[in-house]
Amino acid sequence: MGSIDLYGESERNETGCNIPFNNALDPEEFRRQGHIVIDFLADYYQNVEKYPVLSQVEPGYLRKIFPESASNNHDSIENILKDVQDYIVPGLTHWQSPNYFAYFPSSGSIAGLLGEMLSTGFNVVGFNWMASPAATELEGMVMDWLGKLLNLPRCFLFAGGGGGVLHGTTCEAILCTLVASRDRMLSKIGRDKMDKLVVYGSDQTHCALLKATKIAGLDLKNFRTIKTSKLSNFGLSIESFRSTIAADLEAGHIPLFLCATVGTTVCTAVDPVGPLCRVAKEFAIWVHVDAAYAGSACICPEFQHFMDGIEGANSFSLNAHKWFFTTLDCCCLWVKEPKALIKALSTNPDYLNNKATDSNQVVDYKDWQICLSRRFRAMKLWLVLRMYGATKLRNFLRSHVKMAMKFEEFVSNDKRFELVVPRNFATVCFRISPLVGNDKMLKYDEEVIGDTEGVNKVNQMLLESINSTGQVYMTHGVIGGEYVLRFCVGATLTEDRHVSNAWKVVQVCADEILGLDS
Amino acid sequence: MGSIDLYGESERNETGCNIPFNNALDPEEFRRQGHIVIDFLADYYQNVEKYPVLSQVEPGYLRKIFPESASNNHDSIENILKDVQDYIVPGLTHWQSPNYFAYFPSSGSIAGLLGEMLSTGFNVVGFNWMASPAATELEGMVMDWLGKLLNLPRCFLFAGGGGGVLHGTTCEAILCTLVASRDRMLSKIGRDKMDKLVVYGSDQTHCALLKATKIAGLDLKNFRTIKTSKLSNFGLSIESFRSTIAADLEAGHIPLFLCATVGTTVCTAVDPVGPLCRVAKEFAIWVHVDAAYAGSACICPEFQHFMDGIEGANSFSLNAHKWFFTTLDCCCLWVKEPKALIKALSTNPDYLNNKATDSNQVVDYKDWQICLSRRFRAMKLWLVLRMYGATKLRNFLRSHVKMAMKFEEFVSNDKRFELVVPRNFATVCFRISPLVGNDKMLKYDEEVIGDTEGVNKVNQMLLESINSTGQVYMTHGVIGGEYVLRFCVGATLTEDRHVSNAWKVVQVCADEILGLDS
């Protein structure tokens, strides 16, 4: 290596040592450039309302603009931000836009952002307590804080023998709890029975459960998607759960795991947690309650009844990055028996041995999750709780619910539309009603057969028409065979006027598709 | 809900709508507070050198300081930052300190930090292309850019039918590739043979492999930890690999997966990639090459020989958050056959259907990883590559190697010490040599039996003594039964003077333990 000009871009610093020209973490340079990026982002929030919410670019657009290889040369933050503005921003779907009503929100906030900046700035790797004690201790504390706000039973808190951990997303939380339940069961019945284990969810359960089942190596033949219906507002019925278990036992299978949901992905249905847990208990089934979206609302007393019976579950999770003002990613998982997680997920190589671990006085979070390395996610959740406080947080959430109620009222008052399921939180599922839709559809496409297909197609046309305006972004779902439009309030910047405007867009698009005469 | 005072903390905005007092993403408030946090972090970097590198707090310290529950009231960023300074900073182990030489680095940089800020600021959720096209497109492009810098064969690039994806950490990359290989094999031989599948690594392989094997539901009885020795500098020998396979075949097992390492965790040993891949090919074994730490160095031509034969591997990963100036987390994974990943990991619920996916013209990264939701990690890696350019990045890495060489020279010139293995990158493994150490040890503790235990114990005492100064932080490893101290240069702020000072600390502590007369 002697022949390489190590110092081609170097200079002597004041102590006479050779350092690379401009240390990549030079504090004053960071200060200067950091301020520039803060202003860039503040301007972005000022303007985000003006951008088409759903990006209008074509596949492959970026490769046509940017070079094929990295440059040898360095470049300035000013040039890079210009490219971000010119080429990246148009390719973004603006989840922070006040006109974003799609999927579930990704509710950023000043506190969440600043917390992420601090955590990124410290850039510690908190795999075990010793690698950065504050990261572990703050996480334990903040999970207890949030657990108390949710009125979680003491058995999920550290003081009650349980505990909380921050994962990336719900997929990770479900995978880890599934693996914990699998290994606990196999240690009793033997590995040779692995292919008899059964995993339960409903047809409304998030696909994370299927993915976790695949990754955990369980037999997909034993993955049960229990049908729900409008009769139970797409919640999982006890009778169906019980009869599915009975059939499995009859067939010699072994029930293992149920993922119940508080606020399902498409229509925010709520599975009856308490009754399901009671049935599960009879068969020693591990119950995970996935409240990825709706869990946040449960810091408000008026929503806590949706979690009734949670004391019967083994684990519970919500995504603070969805509707709790904490930037992606931040999934809060509480478990009753951390030991089950630790047993399934721990590894203890020599090079991580340390006295704190040996003392058994600390939590080593590496054994509560898939990965060894972990970011300091607690910082942002702590900032959200500290900076806003419980009262403001509840009012933020209630303001979203109130806006969703307003939209619900708009829909109810237009006879061309129908609400598909009752609104539980801040998501409204609606569609052009079958009579109106099907009549019109026949004019467009004579190949449409049957009422359902017709009305589904006209609603799909409506959604495409709405989103192509760029003024708002909504998404769809299919429940009970019906194509529905989803209007989910939760973007932090959304105000009443955005909801009113969104409804106007829906009406204009509907007028065009259905004819003004409808 | 009518009885709740939704507007207790509200005011009327200029358009006459009710909004919660202070929107949580108010642009001007974000600007003001963002500048404050930038200054806080810049000051932190200015001062980080002065803090004890390894935190000196006791388990449970934070619970004693902070309240047991979240407050109902909001608080100011100024108050919160004061608490961060007073209570969080002392509990941090300062991975960004120039005196941090432990584990592997977590090399932050201005570009990495600003990239993370932008990505957090946009806060998009890029599970599929349509959810934010720029996030997906930039990721594909930047993975090709980095692949080319590493001189990866075309089969790992998108243009060559392969492709790259950003995961959180190597644990995730190994789990996903292991699951892909498992499912590909089982689709050929049938699920009933799952318990015959064998996973191979060496006794130096990262524990991520064991963890992935557990999570994937494979039988730990078939997890092979092939012994290495000083003879091969702790690299996995072809002969051992071959004979282990032969024994497995003899026993009716089915070889599945090898994790080879370029730069092992303790002593940065390099497994012979090319020869191992040739053996693996004979038995259709999936080879993953884990270059978590050392992969970054391979953008320098003089290190690329360590990857010779990589074209025979199925997948390759490195952690840009370790030694590539990209903040945690950012694991770069390239695969030759994305289809194998996608087959194992994809789920396609109705609510994610979209035209771009149907066109088959786009990558939907949700099917390349464990989780559905994903952050816009490409932004920070792109900023690192753009802002520094390949030449500077190579010189940054070379300056670290040069500093490690300097430390190596210090060790060589002190007859009390020995280098345990040859230095390959910027990590030096050293210890008090057996003769010196054991003699001294006998004076301290007469219960010590045998040379190895004695010298290990004296080296452990030395490390504890070094770290208790707070002036530097190093960690240990055990290889071939020997306790070694690791000195890993890679913290971005480290300069020559920090290395010189670290050696002085080692000498002073050694003087004290061994006596000045040694």
TrEMBL record, chains A, B:
Q: Which cofactor does it need?
A: pyridoxal 5'-phosphate
GO annotation, cellular component aspect: cytoplasm
* Protein origin, superkingdom: Eukaryota
GO terms of molecular function: carboxy-lyase activity; pyridoxal phosphate binding
The record's annotation in Gene3D superfamilies points to: Aspartate Aminotransferase, domain 1 (3.90.1150.10), dopa decarboxylase, N-terminal domain (1.20.1340.10), Type I PLP-dependent aspartate aminotransferase-like (Major domain) (3.40.640.10)
What InterPro entries does UniProt report for this protein, alphabetically?
Aromatic_deC (IPR010977), PyrdxlP-dep_de-COase (IPR002129), PyrdxlP-dep_Trfase (IPR015424), PyrdxlP-dep_Trfase_major (IPR015421), PyrdxlP-dep_Trfase_small (IPR015422), Pyridoxal-P_BS (IPR021115)
Per the record, the GO terms for biological process are:
amino acid metabolic process; carboxylic acid metabolic process
**Pfam families, per database record:** Pyridoxal_deC
Q: Which residues carry this modification: N6-(pyridoxal phosphate)lysine?
A: K322
Q: Which UniProt keywords apply?
A: Decarboxylase, Lyase, Pyridoxal phosphate
Q: Which family does it belong to?
A: Belongs to the group II decarboxylase family.
Name the UniProt record assigns to this protein: Pyridoxal phosphate-dependent decarboxylase
Which organism is this entry from? Dillenia turbinata
